[in-house]
């Protein structure tokens, strides 16, 4: 029997999207300083890598990141089952299957957005995963690919996944064009269609459906979460991460004051020092923080200092960047 989701209490009320070359462990630690309640996602990790790769490097995370989900890529039910079990054993709160990424790498491996064409196979994959783990197995998808009719493709995928035990779907409300558009272009050029996601929510009210795509502000997220079980922000949260400091008060009625940028820099400086002592290059951490002062005085000096210091192997780089930001004259 399907459980009824109420968006006011959904664990997926606000999520930060999985982003390739973006939401690694350092990025997620940073984002968690800005919001206590958002659900965080790893970069997509292939099932093959999760099974055979360096698990501490690929799957390790800080306990502060909870709630945190592991996103897997693949199309082999047996491998996805094993990878899901590994993810659960590593402590993840959710295992998410990528059915939306349009990159060449994913297409060559016949998974990601390609799987929109084979809903029955996706159903087999998620069935194997749900039977292997106790944590939720979820799916992140598009509304269709290439010449597919979304009115047919999206419901077909939902039905197949529901039969496999999935109850939570994150829908990027755009098609993916596997021919003719780059992954970057696929994030913006295919038109948004929130209405089809609304229709799916109305048609399947007992499923939890989270809206992704084109959400740029927390105010917009607040309006949309009234219609869906949750919303997911990606590039907007990555490029202007300080907007995440609004999430807890606006979407979760948390009365605590939003964290200041200065507090975040202090905490990340301590984190960077600890990682530095383990041999992590500072740039691996600071690259996620370029947009912290977006729209604030000294933003350009902050970004420039971090960008120019990328080759330097110094543990005090964030302190020095903050000094550069604070020395910027405030415009009258």
Plain-language structure description:
The N and C termini lie far apart (62 Å). Helix 10 links the parallel strand 9 and strand 10. The chain has 16 helices and ten strands. The chain has an eight-stranded parallel β-barrel, surrounded by four helices. With 332 residues, it is α/β, with parallel strands linked by helices. It has two domains: 238 residues, Aldolase class I (TIM Barrel, Alpha-Beta Barrel), CATH 3.20.20; 66 residues, Up-down Bundle (Four Helix Bundle (Hemerythrin (Met), subunit A)).
Topology diagram in text:
Layout: E1 14-16, H1 25-34, E2 39-46, H2 47-52, H3 55-59, E3 68-73, H4 77-90, E4 94-99, H5 104-108, H6 119-132, E5 137-141, E6 144-145, H7 150-163, E7 168-172, E8 175-176, H8 183-186, H9 194-203, E9 208-212, H10 218-224, E10 230-233, H11 235-239, H12 247-252, H13 261-276, H14 283-286, H15 299-308, H16 317-326
Parallel strand pairs: 1-2, 1-10, 2-3, 3-4, 4-5, 5-7, 6-8, 7-9, 9-10
Descriptive terms for the model:
16 helices; disordered N terminus; 2 domains; eight-stranded parallel barrel; Four Helix Bundle (Hemerythrin (Met), subunit A); two-stranded parallel ribbon; single chain; 332 residues; alpha/beta
């Amino acid at each position: 029997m399907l459980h009824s989701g109420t968006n006011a209490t959904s664990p997926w009320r606000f999520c930060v999207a999985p982003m390739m070359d973006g939401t690694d462990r350092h990025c997620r630690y940073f984002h968690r300083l800005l919001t206590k309640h958002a659900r965080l996602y790893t970069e997509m990790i292939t099932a093959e890598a999760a099974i055979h790769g360096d698990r501490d490097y690929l799957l390790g995370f800080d306990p502060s990141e909870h709630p945190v989900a592991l996103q897997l890529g693949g199309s082999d039910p047996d491998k996805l089952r094993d990878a899901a079990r590994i993810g659960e054993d590593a402590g993840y709160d959710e295992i998410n299957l990528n059915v939306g990424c349009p990159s060449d790498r994913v297409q060559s491996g016949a998974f990601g957005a390609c799987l929109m064409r084979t809903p029955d196979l996706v159903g087999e994959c998620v069935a194997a995963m749900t039977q292997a783990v106790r944590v939720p197995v979820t799916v992140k998808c598009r509304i269709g690919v290439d010449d597919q009719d979304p009115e047919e493709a999206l419901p077909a995928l939902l039905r197949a996944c529901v039969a496999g035990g999935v109850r939570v779907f994150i829908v990027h409300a755009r098609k993916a064009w596997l021919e003719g558009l780059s992954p970057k272009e696929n994030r913006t050029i295919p038109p948004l269609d929130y209405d089809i996601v609304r229709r799916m929510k109305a048609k399947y009210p007992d499923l939890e459906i989270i809206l992704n795509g084109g959400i740029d502000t927390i105010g917009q997220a607040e309006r949309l979460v009234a219609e869906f079980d949750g919303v997911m922000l990606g590039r907007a949260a990555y490029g202007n991460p300080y907007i995440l400091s609004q999430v807890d008060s606006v979407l979760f009625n948390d009365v605590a004051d939003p964290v200041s940028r200065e507090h975040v820099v202090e905490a990340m400086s301590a984190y960077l020092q600890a990682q530095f002592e383990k041999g992590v290059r500072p740039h691996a951490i600071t690259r996620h923080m370029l947009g912290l002062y977006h729209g604030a005085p000294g933003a350009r000096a902050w970004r420039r200092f971090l960008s120019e210091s990328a080759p330097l192997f110094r543990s005090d780089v964030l302190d020095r960047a903050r000094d550069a930001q604070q020395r910027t004259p405030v415009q009258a």
